Amino acid sequence: MTRTVSIFGATGSIGQNTLDLIRRDRDGYRIVVLTGGRNIAQLAADAREFGAELAVTCFEDCLPDLRAALDGTGTAVAGGDTALIEAADRPADWTMSAIVGAAGLAPGFHALRHGRTLALANKESLVTAGPLLMAKARAHGARVLPVDSEHSAVFQALVGEDMGAVERIIITASGGALRDWPLERLAEATLADACAHPNWEMGQRITIDSASMFNKALELIETREFFGIAPEKIEPVIHPQSIVHALVGFADGALMAHLGAPDMRHAIGYALHWPERRDLPVARVDLARLATLEFRAPDEARFPALRLAREVMATGGGAGAVFNAAKEIALDHFIAGALRFTDMAPLVEATLDAMSREIRLTDAMDSLETVLQTDHLARTRASELAKARQEQTA
Ligand code: NAD
Ligand code: MG
User: Fold this and answer.
1) Share of residues in the chain with pLDDT > 70 (%)
2) pLDDT above 80 (res 394)
C-alpha cells in the first residue's frame, strides 16, 4: 500500500535523512508536500525526484526562483508562512515535522487535524506548546511519534510497559563539541569550535545547542511533555560515545536501555515504519570493538541551561515558550558573533526574569495564538536585552 507523506523542513538534516529512507522504497510512498528555506536548488531537486504535489519555501522572496526551477513539472509552488500552514492543510498519512525552531510549531499543529501521524523532530513544538499539541492530537485521534533520538529510545523502551511502573527516565548527552574544554576557556569558544560535534551530523543550530546543552535542556522539557512524567524523574547523563540513547528505570530497579549507532535514521525509520520494525541502513553496534561505554553526571556550572530547564518545568505555563524564544535569539546573536558562548544562558535567564514581571508565566497556554504571542514578546525582550548587553560591553 502506498502511503502519502509530507515533510516540513525537507531540505534540512532530518528532512534529507527522511528522504534517504523513502528513496530506498520509492513505491511505498507518494510525496504530498516538501518545504524548505533558501536552498531552492535542493528543494527543487527533491520535488522533481519524488514528484511532489507541492513545494513550499518559507521565504516569499525565494518563490520566483522556486517557480522557475519547477516550471513544467507537475509540482505546484508556494512561499511564505501562510503557505506553510496551507500546505499542512493537505492531508498526508505521515507528516514529518522537521523545521528548526518555534517556526515548526504551527505547521505540525495544523497537520494534526487530519487525525493521522505526526513524526515530531521539532522538539520546540513540545517545549513551547506541549500540553496544547498533545491535547490537539488526542482531540483529532492523531498520533504523535517522537523522532528526537532520546525520545524515540524511551518510546521504544516503553513498548508494552505501564507508565505507572516507571521510576525514572534517563536521557544521554554526548556533551557536545566543548565538553573537554577547561571551564575558564568556554567564553572564548568560536562558532567553528561550537560546531565541531564529536558524534552526530546535524543542522548547525542543534549542533551549537548540543555544545551549550541547551539541546539537552529542551529535551528534558520535551521528555516531560511527551511522556507526562514528573520533572524530578528525568535525569540527563553525559555519555561521550552516543551509543546508549536513553534508559527507562522501572519500579523493580530494572533499566531498559536503547542502543544504536549515532544515526538519526534509527529514530526516523522507527517512526516511519511504526509499529513494525524494518531493516534500516544504519551501522550495527559492535560492543566488543567499542569496549567501553562511559557515563558521568553533567556539571551544572558548565551547563547552566540544565538548571534553567528545571526552573522552566517548575513554572510551567508560558515559561517553555519564553525559554525557547530567548534561546533562539541568544543563538542568533552567538552565530552573528554578537554574543559570547557563555553569555547565551545569562541572556535566556534575564529574559525569563523580565517576562515574569510582565506576564503571569504560570498561566496555561490556552491557544496557539497565545503561544505565538508569548514567543513574539519574548523574542523582542531578548533582543532588547542582548542590545543593552552589547552597548555595555562596547
Ligand atoms: P536544519 O537546520 O538542518 O534544517 C531545518 C529545516 O527547516 C530546513 O529545511 C530549513 O529550510 C527549514 N527552516 C528553517 N527556518 C525556517 C523557518 N523560519 N520557517 C520554515 N522553515 C524553516 O535542522 P535539523 O538539524 O534538520 O533540525 C530540524 C529539527 O529537528 C529541529 O527542531 C531539531 O532540534 C530537531 N532534531 C534534529 C536532529 C538532527 O540530527 N539534525 C536530531 C534531533 C532533533
Ligand atoms: Mg536528541
Assistant:
1) 100
2) no
